[in-house]
Design goal:
- The chain has 389 residues and is an alpha+beta fold.
- The chain has 10 helices and 18 strands.
- Helices cover 30% and strands 26% of the residues.
- The strands form 4 sheets. It has a 6-stranded antiparallel sheet with strand order 8-9-18-17-14-15. A 5-stranded antiparallel sheet has the order 10-11-12-13-16, with helices on one face. A 4-stranded mixed sheet has the order 1-2-3-4.
- Helix 5 (143-168) packs parallel to helix 6.
- The protein starts with 12 loop residues before the first strand and ends with a strand.
């Protein structure tokens, strides 16, 4: 095929795009080939036989205004029928051209994607014409290349989201204050997810601990987790955790999102813990024995009823106490036989691993992975162990 549309030795011409706009549909032009409408079908077919990678071409008038398109498969189907070649070879190509849908070369790829909707994901590959503002031919793109582009764009978004989440939610981390030692772990079911945790010392003798589980999975959940994390990082917790939950709840409600979670305010100066159970309930205490902490004062998830003031309850810690907070992704995980991860695992951690939170975390992750075996992780999983010194 000639490099430009000025080569008259070929019936197949190639347009030269006037301009390539950034992120515009013109960047996805799979072919620039066209043929003028007075070309004979036989001449086109003889030349097209040697360009097998060319799936579609445009038909234009002498001024390069598009009149229609011709699909390679359709043309050779016609010519392959009995007497097809003899009947059609001397006719002009406008006899076999098909109607087309056109987009401007400056149209953004994502706006074209939105306009095409379900046509992109159908099984049949479809072709669309690109023109400039004056209707002059600029190329043809097809749904396959659009899907490849979107796939690459999604992959880039995933990589970016994963990088943000790794900075926000570490797989393993620790925090220590004069009165507490905390170890945390988080494992996402996908590349990114909606679990979030925070261990932030906001005063010399006070630490806030948060485990939150966003409703949903994937990129959208990680976005909500990032919003929550940003608010938690800058909030002045000296004002209390109830105002914080009220503030976040109102914001999430405007986003039409909600989050379950546990928030603890470790007040070493007062030897007490203020706690809020926001529709979560996976909070456990290992003292002389192991038990689930159920205050009877569970609140709705953050964002569901933002006008309600959250109800707090109090825990009076004793030296050697170990608090566990886990997300439902841990406690609802199944093995290959459909059994649910046993809560009793938490009660056995201190016995098998000792009282240090880092060792408890290692033991828990090991048991979790051994339990699920080859069963895929079904949801994001986060674990925190808090030991009172």
């Amino acid at each position: 095929m000639p490099e430009t549309d000025h080569d008259t030795k070929s019936v197949l011409r190639r347009t030269v795009p006037e301009r390539e706009y950034q992120n515009s549909i013109s960047r996805l032009a799979a072919t620039l080939a066209y043929v003028e409408s007075d070309c004979k079908i036989g001449d086109l077919a003889n030349e097209w036989r040697h360009a097998a990678d060319l799936s579609a071409i445009a038909v234009t008038d002498k001024t390069k205004h598009v009149l229609g398109i011709i699909l390679r498969e359709s043309l050779f189907d016609i010519l392959g029928k009995p007497y097809g070649w003899d009947v059609m070879k001397n006719r002009t190509v406008d006899h076999v051209m098909e109607t087309f849908r056109a987009f401007l070369s400056s149209d953004h790829i994502l706006s074209v994607t939105s306009e095409l909707g379900d046509q992109i994901t159908g099984g049949e590959q479809k072709f669309y014409v690109i023109t400039n503002f004056d209707g002059i031919y600029q190329g043809i793109f097809h749904t396959r290349d659009l899907l490849v582009y979107l796939s690459g764009l999604t992959r880039k978004d995933l990589v970016h989201a994963r990088r943000i989440q790794q900075n926000l939610v570490a797989e393993n981390s620790e925090s220590e204050s004069p009165g507490y030692f905390i170890a945390a772990a988080s494992r996402m079911a996908r590349e990114v997810g909606g679990d979030y945790y925070l261990m932030r010392r906001y005063a010399s003798d006070r630490t806030v601990v948060i485990l939150a589980d966003v409703c949903g999975k994937g990129i959208s959940a990680s976005f909500v987790a990032a919003v929550l994390g940003g608010m938690a990082e800058v909030y002045d917790f000296r004002a209390g955790i109830a105002p914080f939950l009220h503030l976040v709840g109102g914001y999430l409600a405007r986003m039409d999102e909600f989050v379950t979670g546990i928030v603890l305010d470790l007040r070493e100066d007062e030897n007490r813990i203020l706690a809020a159970d926001m529709g979560h309930s996976f909070l456990y205490l290992h003292r002389d024995s192991f038990s689930k902490i159920d205050s009877g004062r569970r609140n709705p998830p953050i964002g569901l009823y933002p006008e309600r003031e959250p109800t707090l309850f109090e825990i009076i810690p004793e030296p050697g106490d170990i608090l566990y907070i886990v997300s439902d992704g841990a406690m609802e995980q199944e093995d290959t036989e459909g059994n649910v991860f046993p809560v009793s695992t938490l009660s056995e951690l201190k016995i098998s691993a000792g009282p240090e939170p880092q060792a408890l975390r290692t033991e828990f992750i090991s048991r979790f992975e051994d339990f699920r075996g080859r069963e895929p992780q079904s949801d994001d999983m986060t674990f925190l162990a808090i030991r009172k010194k």
